[in-house]
Amino acid sequence: DMSNAIVAQDEMGRPFIIVRDQGNKKRQHGIEAKKSHILAARSVASIIKTSLGPRGLDKILISPDGDITITNDGATILSQMELDNEVAKLLVQLSKSQDDEIGDGTTGVVVLASALLDQALELIEKGIHPIKIANGFDEAAKLAIAHLEGTTDDVAIDSDLFNDYLFKASKTSLGSKIVSKNHDKFAKMAVDAVLQVMDKNRKDVHFDLIKMEGRVGGSLDDSQLINGVILDKDFSHPQMPKEVTPKDGKSDVKLAILTCPFEPPKPKTKHKLDISTVEEYEKLQNYEQDKFKEMINYVKEAGADVVICQWGFDDEANHLLLQNDLPAVRWVGGQELEHIAIATSGRIVPRFQDLSNDKLGSCKRIHELEFGTTKDKMLVIEQEGTSSKTVTCFIRGSSKMIVDEAKRALHDSLCVVRNLVRDSRVVYGGGAAEITMSIAVSEEADRQKGIDQYAFRAFSQALDTVPMTLAENSGLDPIATLSALKSKQIKEKTSFIGVDCLGKGTSDMKELFVVDPFIGKKQQILLATQLCRMILKIDNVIISGKDEY
Ligand code: ADP
Asked: What Gene Ontology terms describe what this protein does at the molecular function level (predicted)?
């Protein structure tokens, strides 16, 4: 049921769907709520489905308080819909699980799960017991995954081709996203970021080491990967230099990373400080001056060129820092401080007297980024080449909506690359993987004699929904496309024939390099089957589903 969604067109004539599902709780308590759970799942899926693939529609989501999100990401769409129905909520969970574990394929998993539910409903109507269906689906899923595993392609992680392979896979995952015009740039950013921080021995990537920063203004094309950290700050005094590079004879800029304030400790008098004479006032001033000088001496003696401080400091301290040629940054958050420490291999120092040269961080350059039309400034702490241990993906875009969606797209792409670092096997996209599994499962159905054959056939048909949806979203006839692709796969005994969504003139996904990580596809099948089993096991859902049909 799409009654809450309307199709509109933007000024370029590109269609998109506006979903006004939020703030509609009351309506859902009415007639709508009487529909069965599985039908509710279907209605959610019908909205999600239209986003699948490179020709999928972007959604504009409007929250009750008017916030607008533009997205193509299944998990995001679902998370912003206010749903009353329990099964529909499970779909949200499903998409989130896929997002948490794999990071990509969040739309596909919902399409598959709802197709399985549809198939299950038909089998229940034929009189097959839900548990039998669930068991049959499990068996079919096992077979499908085993078959798919046999069709994977692999480029060894140490081979020369690996980087190119990552790049192409990253690019595919961006194909359906808002950044598709800049996908070379974003794909490269994802690959470079992952390769730089990856742990080669453990074949894993800590996403903590990849920071994502966004700033409205400029265009997506101004986005860049920074080998280091970017801070939403500027130097503490306007006369401090806009750029710090290594001083004569040194190879690095040295940073003191401090969690102690530039503030003199309160004089140790038991009584309230009473300043009644000029003399006393000067005494206090001198005391403060001395303390500041002492602190700055500690910093200087350790050999620091720049001070990064978690706290603020007053004008006096600021002026002394300037006088002593120590550019400084104040009010740096705890997490950012940690990032700086990692990126510069420095230590976070809690007391001035603990400062020493070996605890200082090192970098090649610190410079202020200015943004043309605004007064905004940011500071970049940069390493040379690829020597930083953390990186920052810095996203620019003309509006907050664009920046946010670009971040989500880049995140998906980072996930694809990370997944391939973990397991470099790929399967083919455009529904090719689903078609080859569907063929294998339906062949097995033909061999089965018992009741399982129905579940296998149903499972095979649910898999077909993915290529059919891709075809439909690309303006192709879903049934004709599917049967043509299927017979081609069978005739040529290949597994990489899929839907030519972008009209490139070939259905050879290998040639188009439309790939998905095997572990992502496997996870989709496992999660969708699991969800279906869960729902089939809850008896009253199915019974009420039938009653209210
Ligand atoms: P998800 O959130 O599930 O990743 P997407 O909207 O990103 O959904 O669509 C992914 C699907 O689109 C996958 O099945 C993928 O193989 C397919 N796909 C991506 N790019 C292409 C392409 N250029 N041609 C055909 N299919 C593609």
From this structure: ATP binding; ATP hydrolysis activity; ATP-dependent protein folding chaperone; unfolded protein binding
